Write the C-alpha coordinates for this entry.
Amino acid sequence: MRKTRQANEMDTPAETTADIPVSPRSETLHRLLKLSNRLMAPFSVNLEHQYKISLNEFRLLMLIGRFPQSASHELAEMTGVNAMSVSRAVSALERHGRVRVVRDEENRRRKRLTLTKEGERLYRIMRPQTERVADYLLSDLHPHEIAMFDHILRTLIDTLEATDAEGRSLFLENTKPDDADG
Protein backbone atom coordinates (compact mmCIF):
# COMPACT_ATOMS: atom_id res chain seq x y z
CA MET A 1 0.00 0.00 0.00
CA ARG A 2 1.30 3.40 -0.92
CA LYS A 3 1.75 5.95 1.85
CA THR A 4 0.73 9.51 1.23
CA ARG A 5 2.73 12.25 2.77
CA GLN A 6 1.02 15.10 4.54
CA ALA A 7 1.85 18.52 3.17
CA ASN A 8 3.57 20.91 5.50
CA GLU A 9 4.61 24.53 5.24
CA MET A 10 7.90 23.59 3.55
CA ASP A 11 6.04 21.88 0.69
CA THR A 12 4.03 24.97 -0.22
CA PRO A 13 6.11 27.83 -1.54
CA ALA A 14 4.93 31.34 -0.81
CA GLU A 15 4.86 32.06 -4.54
CA THR A 16 4.64 29.42 -7.24
CA THR A 17 6.12 29.93 -10.67
CA ALA A 18 2.57 30.11 -12.03
CA ASP A 19 2.12 33.29 -9.99
CA ILE A 20 5.03 35.08 -11.67
CA PRO A 21 3.63 37.23 -14.48
CA VAL A 22 4.99 36.66 -17.99
CA SER A 23 5.25 39.64 -20.30
CA PRO A 24 3.91 39.59 -23.86
CA ARG A 25 7.53 40.07 -25.01
CA SER A 26 8.56 36.89 -23.17
CA GLU A 27 5.70 35.02 -24.83
CA THR A 28 6.86 36.30 -28.23
CA LEU A 29 10.42 35.20 -27.47
CA HIS A 30 9.12 31.76 -26.50
CA ARG A 31 7.24 31.50 -29.82
CA LEU A 32 10.33 32.62 -31.73
CA LEU A 33 12.42 29.92 -30.03
CA LYS A 34 9.72 27.36 -30.78
CA LEU A 35 9.70 28.46 -34.42
CA SER A 36 13.45 28.02 -34.60
CA ASN A 37 13.24 24.53 -33.11
CA ARG A 38 10.36 23.48 -35.37
CA LEU A 39 12.26 24.70 -38.45
CA MET A 40 14.97 22.14 -37.71
CA ALA A 41 12.60 19.15 -37.80
CA PRO A 42 12.78 18.55 -41.59
CA PHE A 43 16.55 18.71 -41.36
CA SER A 44 16.87 16.26 -38.49
CA VAL A 45 14.19 13.88 -39.81
CA ASN A 46 15.15 13.92 -43.49
CA LEU A 47 18.82 14.87 -43.83
CA GLU A 48 20.90 14.57 -40.66
CA HIS A 49 20.97 10.78 -40.34
CA GLN A 50 20.84 9.99 -44.05
CA TYR A 51 23.91 12.11 -44.84
CA LYS A 52 25.62 11.98 -41.45
CA ILE A 53 25.88 15.74 -41.15
CA SER A 54 25.31 17.95 -38.09
CA LEU A 55 23.10 21.00 -38.10
CA ASN A 56 26.06 23.40 -38.04
CA GLU A 57 27.79 21.46 -40.83
CA PHE A 58 24.57 21.64 -42.87
CA ARG A 59 24.27 25.40 -42.33
CA LEU A 60 27.86 25.98 -43.38
CA LEU A 61 27.65 23.66 -46.38
CA MET A 62 24.59 25.59 -47.60
CA LEU A 63 26.32 28.95 -47.11
CA ILE A 64 29.55 27.87 -48.79
CA GLY A 65 27.42 26.65 -51.70
CA ARG A 66 25.80 30.09 -51.93
CA PHE A 67 28.95 32.10 -51.16
CA PRO A 68 31.94 30.16 -52.49
CA GLN A 69 35.36 31.32 -51.34
CA SER A 70 34.02 32.53 -47.96
CA ALA A 71 36.26 32.47 -44.91
CA SER A 72 35.27 30.90 -41.58
CA HIS A 73 34.95 34.26 -39.81
CA GLU A 74 32.59 35.46 -42.56
CA LEU A 75 30.44 32.35 -42.13
CA ALA A 76 30.36 32.92 -38.38
CA GLU A 77 29.08 36.44 -39.03
CA MET A 78 26.48 35.25 -41.56
CA THR A 79 25.10 32.49 -39.33
CA GLY A 80 25.43 34.11 -35.91
CA VAL A 81 27.18 30.92 -34.77
CA ASN A 82 30.28 31.40 -32.61
CA ALA A 83 33.71 31.02 -34.23
CA MET A 84 34.57 27.84 -32.30
CA SER A 85 31.42 26.06 -33.50
CA VAL A 86 32.14 27.18 -37.06
CA SER A 87 35.71 25.93 -36.76
CA ARG A 88 34.52 22.51 -35.54
CA ALA A 89 31.95 22.24 -38.31
CA VAL A 90 34.50 23.25 -40.98
CA SER A 91 36.93 20.65 -39.62
CA ALA A 92 34.24 17.96 -39.80
CA LEU A 93 33.23 18.99 -43.32
CA GLU A 94 36.86 18.92 -44.38
CA ARG A 95 37.46 15.54 -42.68
CA HIS A 96 34.46 14.07 -44.55
CA GLY A 97 35.70 15.45 -47.87
CA ARG A 98 32.90 18.00 -48.26
CA VAL A 99 34.91 21.24 -48.19
CA ARG A 100 38.41 22.24 -49.05
CA VAL A 101 40.29 24.87 -47.08
CA VAL A 102 42.62 26.88 -49.30
CA ARG A 103 45.01 29.63 -48.22
CA ASP A 104 44.25 32.89 -50.05
CA GLU A 105 47.28 33.83 -52.15
CA GLU A 106 46.51 37.56 -51.86
CA ASN A 107 46.00 37.48 -48.09
CA ARG A 108 48.04 34.66 -46.57
CA ARG A 109 46.17 34.89 -43.24
CA ARG A 110 42.81 34.24 -44.91
CA LYS A 111 41.63 30.71 -45.63
CA ARG A 112 38.94 30.34 -48.28
CA LEU A 113 36.39 27.56 -48.10
CA THR A 114 35.13 25.82 -51.22
CA LEU A 115 32.93 22.81 -51.77
CA THR A 116 34.53 19.61 -53.03
CA LYS A 117 32.72 17.45 -55.59
CA GLU A 118 31.09 15.60 -52.66
CA GLY A 119 30.14 18.93 -51.06
CA GLU A 120 28.63 20.15 -54.32
CA ARG A 121 26.69 16.88 -54.64
CA LEU A 122 25.24 17.31 -51.13
CA TYR A 123 24.49 20.98 -51.78
CA ARG A 124 22.51 20.06 -54.90
CA ILE A 125 20.58 17.42 -52.92
CA MET A 126 19.90 19.62 -49.87
CA ARG A 127 19.16 22.95 -51.59
CA PRO A 128 15.69 21.91 -52.81
CA GLN A 129 14.84 20.73 -49.28
CA THR A 130 15.67 24.16 -47.84
CA GLU A 131 13.53 25.78 -50.54
CA ARG A 132 10.62 23.46 -49.64
CA VAL A 133 10.95 24.43 -45.98
CA ALA A 134 10.94 28.15 -46.86
CA ASP A 135 8.01 27.75 -49.26
CA TYR A 136 5.96 25.83 -46.71
CA LEU A 137 6.77 28.15 -43.81
CA LEU A 138 5.78 31.29 -45.70
CA SER A 139 2.96 29.80 -47.80
CA ASP A 140 0.15 31.42 -45.78
CA LEU A 141 1.69 34.90 -45.96
CA HIS A 142 1.06 37.50 -48.64
CA PRO A 143 4.09 39.08 -50.33
CA HIS A 144 3.76 42.28 -48.29
CA GLU A 145 3.64 40.20 -45.08
CA ILE A 146 6.80 38.33 -46.10
CA ALA A 147 8.50 41.68 -46.75
CA MET A 148 7.31 42.98 -43.35
CA PHE A 149 8.48 39.79 -41.62
CA ASP A 150 11.86 40.07 -43.31
CA HIS A 151 12.11 43.71 -42.19
CA ILE A 152 11.29 42.71 -38.61
CA LEU A 153 13.88 39.91 -38.69
CA ARG A 154 16.55 42.29 -40.01
CA THR A 155 15.68 44.83 -37.31
CA LEU A 156 15.91 42.18 -34.58
CA ILE A 157 19.24 40.89 -35.91
CA ASP A 158 20.60 44.45 -36.08
CA THR A 159 19.51 44.96 -32.47
CA LEU A 160 21.29 41.77 -31.38
CA GLU A 161 24.45 42.67 -33.32
CA ALA A 162 24.73 46.30 -32.13
CA THR A 163 27.94 47.20 -30.28
CA ASP A 164 29.11 50.06 -28.10
CA ALA A 165 32.09 52.33 -28.83
CA GLU A 166 34.49 49.66 -27.48
CA GLY A 167 32.99 46.95 -29.70
CA ARG A 168 31.17 45.13 -26.88
CA SER A 169 27.84 43.52 -27.65
CA LEU A 170 25.03 45.75 -26.38
CA PHE A 171 22.82 42.66 -26.27
CA LEU A 172 25.16 40.77 -23.95
CA GLU A 173 25.86 43.85 -21.84
CA ASN A 174 22.16 44.64 -21.41
CA THR A 175 21.03 41.09 -20.70
CA LYS A 176 23.54 40.19 -18.00
CA PRO A 177 21.89 38.56 -14.99
CA ASP A 178 21.54 40.62 -11.85
CA ASP A 179 24.24 40.00 -9.27
CA ALA A 180 21.60 39.10 -6.70
CA ASP A 181 21.45 35.47 -5.60
CA GLY A 182 17.77 35.11 -5.99
Remarks:
- The longest strand covers residues 99-103.
- The longest helix spans residues 117-138.
